[in-house]
Amino acid sequence: MTRSPDLPPWLNSVARPATLALTGLRKLVDLMAGLLFIYMALAIMAQILGRYVFGYSIAGTDETAVFAQVWLVLLGAGIAMRNRQHVGVDVLIRRTPERVQQLARLASYALGMWFLYVVFVGSFALLGIGMMVQSPALRLPMAIPYAALPVGMAYFMLEFSVASLPDILRPAQARANAAALT
């Protein structure tokens, strides 16, 4: 990463390690999502083969496949945010003056972060319950699937900030990027 002339020097010294950490985290999340998907597919296939070919149901495969799906969906939300694949309707906002667009972006970011924060904080109560409750088939603590909620929300908040803040802090660059996309 080269030095950015529009950033203060102290921020340039932080930007490189932060970029490397973000890149590493994204690779880890991508790896985990891939492994979860593969496991989920194999577990379901094993359950189908066991049940219909061998006449024997494998205990717990459907339960762990559901756990993997929960983790995959919540990590996948952050991956979709990174790739800007979440639905956004901005037809009216684009027709307003620049200042209104800037305020709308800021309000959208603030409301989105507030919602994600509320879910993140609320998920810890669910984790507490999950420590006391066990899954029906394998008797695993339900905190395992419930932990996907705070982890997924934290990752989504990070990717939401990375995707949104440049548009808010540098509106001229956001306009140029939007013009390049159309």
TrEMBL record:
Pfam families documented for this protein: DctQ
Stated name of the protein: TRAP transporter small permease protein
Any one of the GO BP annotations: C4-dicarboxylate transport
Intracellular or extracellular location(s): Cell inner membrane
Quaternary structure, from the entry: The complex comprises the extracytoplasmic solute receptor protein and the two transmembrane proteins.
Family (UniProt): Belongs to the TRAP transporter small permease family.
Gene Ontology annotations for the cellular component aspect, listed alphabetically: plasma membrane
TM spans (from-to): 31-54, 103-131, 143-165
Function: Part of the tripartite ATP-independent periplasmic (TRAP) transport system.
Organism of this sequence: Poseidonocella pacifica
Every Tripartite ATP-independent periplasmic transporters DctQ component domain range: 40-159
Keywords: Cell inner membrane, Cell membrane, Membrane, Transmembrane, Transmembrane helix, Transport
Membrane topology: Multi-pass membrane protein
